[in-house]
Amino acid sequence: MHEPSKRSRPADRHEAIDISDFVYAATGARVRRLTMPDGKHWFPAVDVCRKLGHSNTQKALSDHVPDDHRETLETLTGGYGLSIPAGREWRRDLNIISLQGLVLLVNACTKAACAPFKQWVAEVIETVQREGSYTLQEAEVQPTEPGAPIAYAMPEQVAEAIVRLESHNLQVDEELAVAQRESLAVQKEMLAAQQAALAVQEAMARAMERIADRLDTLVLGGLPGARAGAHPTTESVLADWRQRLSVTEDVWTVAVVIAPVLVEKGELREPLESIAARTGLSVRRVNECLRLLRRHACIRSQGGAENGAPVYILNRR
């Protein structure tokens, strides 16, 4: 999370504790940071406050961080002759706090995760008061390169805080993965249930269609004036339809167009658009007229043609 500065840090400067580990042990997060040419570290106050649970950044700064340890980003970078970093929401008015400001906010935090770090800070203060200084223990394994700085062992409390926070993060990641898998399984079950319900609805619609066709066959009477099994004429069909229902002009217009086709071919397979073009009616009105003729047992549905057009036949004994 380190934002490099435009100038290199002094070659002889060495941090006894890696700043990223130090901040992670204090906050439980890898927050953004700026490192100035003189080696001082600065952090966005909003990042630190969010991770520590301070809901009001301005109030947290006002209550716990003196002016000496906070700046705006524009003032801080301008003092070093640097430009504001690009991207990552680095705004000119962004509140920035020093490492001491970060520690002050940690000391004001009530989260249990901050306790080991605060205990270590207290130990440092108590040791300095008693012995006049605080010295980190040198690490058992030292760098072998000529001129390499001395390596120090990380304080126990800091190391424990890092281990505990890392373990907590791993546990949270695992719980999140389990929740995501369970959510995906529930979504699949819901999709399967929706598909099953749709299949049932389609099956019921087909069954109702067959029942309607069967009832049409059972209740229909023969055409007036025609012998059983005799081939009807266009005139007899239209005369029969006039007796079955009080037709409107639109219905009669459709009836005159489809009756000859039904008589001659035994079925009607024309798309609704074709009938609409021949009658001058809209497709919707043509469909309504056909439904009326079907409801009054003048015609019967026989499913659909290959081109999607509905198929109708005359209702006869």
Please give a structural write-up.
The protein has 317 residues and is of the alpha+beta class. It folds into two domains: 2-174, no CATH class; 221-314, Winged helix-like DNA-binding domain superfamily/Winged helix DNA-binding domain (Arc Repressor Mutant, subunit A, Orthogonal Bundle). 54% of the residues lie in helices and 9% in strands. The strands form two sheets. A five-stranded mixed β-sheet has the order 1-2-3-5-4. A hairpin with a 5-residue loop joins β2 and β3. It is rod-shaped and about 120 Å long. Residues 4-12 and 219-228 have low confidence and may be disordered.
Secondary-structure map:
Layout: E1 2-3, H1 19-27, E2 33-35, E3 41-44, H2 45-52, H3 57-64, E4 70-72, H4 73-79, E5 95-98, H5 99-107, H6 115-131, H7 156-219, H8 234-244, H9 249-265, H10 272-279, H11 283-295, E6 299-304, E7 310-314
Parallel strand pairs: 1-2
Antiparallel strand pairs: 2-3, 3-5, 4-5, 6-7
Helix pairs in contact: 1-7, 6-7, 8-9, 9-11, 10-11
Pfam families: Bro-N (PF02498)
Protein name: Bro-N domain-containing protein
Domain Bro-N: 16-132
Please supply descriptive tags for the structure shown above.
single chain, 317 residues, alpha+beta, Arc Repressor Mutant, subunit A, 2 domains, 5-stranded mixed sheet, two-stranded antiparallel sheet, 11 helices, 54% helix, BRO_N_domain, Bro-N domain-containing protein
